[in-house]
Amino acid sequence: MLKHVINDFAVLKPVIGSDEYNSDIFGNSKTIKCKIEFAKKPDTSQTFCRQSHPARMFCYEDVNLNDIVTYQNIDYKVIQVNSYKDLDGKPMFYEVFLI
Asked: From first to last of its 99 residues, what are the pLDDT tens digits of the chain?
């Protein structure tokens, strides 16, 4: 369905647990094929601090909350995952919201 538009690549770092300080522990990173769309937002700040860039990603790989997606050397945290299923109940693709 989306095979003709999913033409970007990103690195997925899945969270496999947390340590005694409640920090995330990441598993092996892997390259996934995806499509990322960025939200347009005007820069109204007068300072040069780093701002978040909300984005939406479509992919075929299973993605979970709090995973890290690296795209163009910028890390994004997964805040929401929607899975779209076919009539048999199998996931076709995932819509992932990043910040």
From this structure: 677 889 999 999 999 999 999 999 999 999 999 999 998 766 666 555 555 679 999 999 999 999 999 999 999 999 999 999 999 999 999 999 999
If one counts the domains in the chain, the total is: 1
1 lies in some domain = no
CA angle (31, 71, 39) in 5-degree steps = 135
Does residue 58 contact residue 93 with C-beta atoms inside 8 Å? yes
Domain that holds residue 56: 8-39+52-98
Q: What is the CATH number of the domain that holds 16?
A: 2.40.10.270
Residue 23, token pair as written in the block:
């920090």
Pull the structure tokens for residue 24: 């995330």
pTM attached to this predicted model: 0.83
